[in-house]
């Protein structure tokens, strides 16, 4: 029996993307063609073609443990040429605003050794594009005071909860890795306290927590609506940025 050519291997993809929440890559996935959705183990996969480039997105849920497992599942199932960690981040540098893009040149995580990423990508602050450190933490960083403290300690531009784990896995397995995040919040105000209990470990909205928040503090509804609007705008900006990124990475192979 003749083996199929690589281009005919439907299981393979050119670029695999790990994100925590469906909303983060929803706009980008909408721009793909022939999208198929399936569940593998604990994770939801969405695959399609973007300008002829085979893309698979896996939704890991929040946190490093799930992100690493999702990266493993992605590589095992689809053998991507590149693995990306994409999604939302919180700006911790004063210069960054909601909607700005952060391309990581190093990944930081507490006392773990930094992971340096060897590539050249120009910053363009006028367009809201920044290159620098991305810090991964165990919990959501909610207050402006916490963000400023982390920025002073690490020199990072933004904070997320998954990228270091994905980068570490890729380094161990010798997979090419790239991390790009969009800032869904900045240092203009604290996040509402309810955000800490809003999402479960899988990234699904905990509706009981939502109802409880509204019962305890009715004004939280307005805060949550504002966060949702910011997140939707951030997802659109990430999709626009990824348009160029996936084409450049695909060409780089």
UniProtKB/TrEMBL annotation:
<dbReference type="InterPro" id="IPR035994">
    <property type="entry name" value="Nucleoside_phosphorylase_sf"/>
</dbReference>
<feature type="domain" description="Nucleoside phosphorylase">
    <location>
        <begin position="14"/>
        <end position="107"/>
    </location>
</feature>
<dbReference type="GO" id="GO:0019284">
    <property type="term" value="P:L-methionine salvage from S-adenosylmethionine"/>
</dbReference>
<dbReference type="GO" id="GO:0005829">
    <property type="term" value="C:cytosol"/>
</dbReference>
<dbReference type="InterPro" id="IPR000845">
    <property type="entry name" value="Nucleoside_phosphorylase_d"/>
</dbReference>
<dbReference type="Pfam" id="PF01048">
    <property type="entry name" value="PNP_UDP_1"/>
</dbReference>
<protein>
    <submittedName>
        <fullName>5'-methylthioadenosine nucleosidase</fullName>
    </submittedName>
</protein>
<dbReference type="GO" id="GO:0008782">
    <property type="term" value="F:adenosylhomocysteine nucleosidase activity"/>
</dbReference>
<dbReference type="GO" id="GO:0009116">
    <property type="term" value="P:nucleoside metabolic process"/>
</dbReference>
<dbReference type="GO" id="GO:0008930">
    <property type="term" value="F:methylthioadenosine nucleosidase activity"/>
</dbReference>
<feature type="domain" description="Nucleoside phosphorylase">
    <location>
        <begin position="130"/>
        <end position="187"/>
    </location>
</feature>
